[in-house]
């Protein structure tokens, strides 16, 4: 696994832009030799881009579609979203030679690779959710020669299948170790299992038909929220251990723009103004943070601190830090594991003090 590091933006040159589908591009970045170590990544991770559109700073996270085994390559896919300011700017205007602020890779949508093991990896993806899955898929097939991979991939129609040609090439290259099943909303397959959306019932049927071997399995789910809920419920119905289910959220169920909703302290809990010491890059800053006010991240930003963040919606883990003193509470958490929370880690965009003195260390991320 890569060594944890503080999230930092670097100015990177766009090496190439490939039109993957009518509304999706694949962007390759040129990584200078001196910054190669900063941009080492694990299969399934993402980077955050900082853009300025009409005078406003926008930060958006995009999954890496290249494999860490592809030395010197870092590529992302950007799908144009209706009304999406950042994705529209990138898809319509990005050209080779332009420079973009790119944060170092982050994310937990990954699993350790063991060349000696024989496993069955099963992924459910829809739309641009294929992006991190492709990185995982390519890495697994090359690094675990005994393992196999099954992909269930939902799209509207054939023309909108991102990486369709690449998936066909990988199937030809790896033979029976890779199976890809396309499920199309507007599909006209004689087998109705491959038409329509991926519902809970459809996911159960796909598992029963195509995932029947006795091998140890790891499941990955990435795509629209409802699809992920459907597949998660299907896996739960089939008795799959939650520790073997990996989920990558692209957006939170609540709005993620602006400051987070306040988290009022529970009855009897600390409700005053806390002294919060923030440690970052070996330096300390002291903030006054109200228990029923803005989250620690927002207070730090208002104080002029260059603390790392991306989504502000509890989805990514860019603002992850560790509480080394005092008590806090998170309003929401869609990114940290139970083990990380138990170990004192928090998403500072959701963190509110619950004791008079708190120390949060970004260097222990």
How would you characterize the overall build of this protein?
By secondary structure, the chain is an alpha/beta fold. It folds into 3 domains: 95 residues, Elongation Factor Tu (Ef-tu), domain 3 (Beta Barrel), CATH 2.40.30; 130 residues, Rossmann fold, CATH 3.40.50; 92 residues, Beta-grasp domain (Ubiquitin-like (UB roll)), CATH 3.10.20. Helix content is 19%, strand content 32%. Strand 8, helix 3 and strand 9 form a beta-alpha-beta unit. Helix 4 packs across helix 5. The longest helix has 14 residues.
Q: In terms of topology, how is this protein built?
A:
Blueprint: E1 9-21, E2 24-30, E3 46-53, E4 56-63, E5 75-79, H1 85-93, E6 99-103, E7 119-126, H2 130-143, E8 148-155, H3 164-174, E9 178-184, H4 200-210, E10 216-222, H5 225-237, E11 245-248, E12 273-280, E13 283-290, H6 296-302, E14 320-325, E15 328-330, H7 338-342, E16 345-347, E17 351-353, E18 357-361
Parallel strand pairs: 7-8, 7-10, 8-9, 10-11, 12-18
Antiparallel strand pairs: 1-2, 1-6, 2-5, 3-4, 3-6, 12-13, 14-16, 14-18, 15-17
Helix pairs in contact: 4-5
């Amino acid at each position: 696994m890569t060594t944890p590091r503080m999230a930092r933006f670097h100015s990177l040159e766009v090496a190439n832009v490939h039109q993957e589908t009518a509304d999706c591009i694949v962007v390759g970045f040129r990584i200078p030799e001196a910054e190669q170590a900063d941009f080492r990544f694990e299969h399934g991770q993402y980077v955050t881009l900082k853009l300025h559109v009409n005078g406003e700073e926008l930060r958006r996270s995009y999954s890496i579609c290249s494999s860490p085994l592809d030395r010197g390559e870092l590529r992302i896919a950007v799908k144009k979203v209706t009304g999406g300011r950042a994705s529209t700017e990138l898809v319509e205007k990005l050209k080779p030679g332009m420079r973009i602020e790119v944060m170092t890779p982050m994310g937990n949508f990954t699993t350790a690779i063991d060349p000696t093991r024989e496993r069955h990896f099963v992924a459910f993806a829809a739309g641009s959710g294929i992006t991190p899955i492709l990185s995982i898929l390519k890495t697994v097939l090359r690094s675990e020669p005994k393992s196999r991979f099954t992909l269930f991939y939902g799209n509207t129609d054939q023309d909108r299948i991102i990486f369709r040609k690449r998936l066909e090439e990988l199937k030809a290259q790896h033979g029976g170790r890779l199976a890809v099943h396309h499920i199309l909303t507007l599909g006209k397959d004689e087998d109705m299992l491959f038409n329509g959306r991926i519902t809970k019932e459809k996911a159960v049927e796909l598992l029963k038909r195509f995932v029947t071997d006795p091998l140890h399995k790891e499941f990955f789910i990435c795509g629209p929220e409802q699809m992920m809920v459907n597949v998660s419920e299907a896996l739960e119905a089939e008795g799959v251990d939650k520790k073997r289910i990996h989920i990558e959220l692209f957006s939170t169920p609540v709005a993620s723009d602006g400051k987070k909703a306040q988290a009022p302290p529970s009855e009897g809990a600390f409700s005053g103004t806390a002294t919060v010491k923030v440690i970052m890059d070996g330096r300390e800053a002291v903030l006054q943070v109200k228990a029923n006010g803005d989250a620690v991240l927002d207070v730090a930003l208002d104080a002029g601190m260059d603390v790392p963040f991306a989504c502000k919606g509890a989805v990514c883990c860019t603002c992850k830090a560790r509480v080394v003193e005092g008590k806090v509470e998170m309003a929401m958490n869609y990114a940290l594991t139970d083990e990380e929370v138990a170990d004192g880690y928090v998403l500072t965009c959701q963190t509110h003090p619950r004791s008079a003195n708190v120390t949060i260390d970004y260097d222990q991320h």
